[in-house]
Amino acid sequence: MWKSIINSVAMVAIMTVLTGIVYPMAMTGLAQALFPSQANGSIIRYNGQSVGSKLIGQNFTSDKYFHGRPSSAGSDGYEALSSSGSNLGPTNAKLKQSVQERLDKIIAENALDSGKTVPGDLVLASASGLDPHITPDAAYLQLKRVAAARGLQQKEVERLVESHIEGRQFGLLGEQCVNVLELNLALDGLK
Hints:
mainly alpha
């Protein structure tokens, strides 16, 4: 019986070392060697400073910047430790009210006609609440406001948006999108 107990304890110790230390260290080393940017959080640097991650949205409120998707992650939104959606269903009155408030805000901010169609990604939060992308239509809708706030020609800002449209993954998965942080940093880089 003692032999079985000793063998069991030894096996637990060996498997703990293998699966708890050796394997994670090997995968971390492999990730650092093959995909260093992704393994370190896809951090974006601007003027020598870390300004955010390519994978996590941020809250831009100034008229000088493109605005991303709304976020329900945390009390102020975009809190990575609170990644989640609101869990409100389509018949929930609170969801309907918040979507209407977001819609009214977008219409007012961008001086749109009340009958103008607004892309859903500007009024609906993503499942994680941290989506860093918007559709090209959502970016084009904000062109006039951003150009006016920065004193730029609308065509110049439009060309910038077009240069930041990311295609479908592998040419067939997902939809075209624009990373809001990267687009806003490119705006800041314009002279």
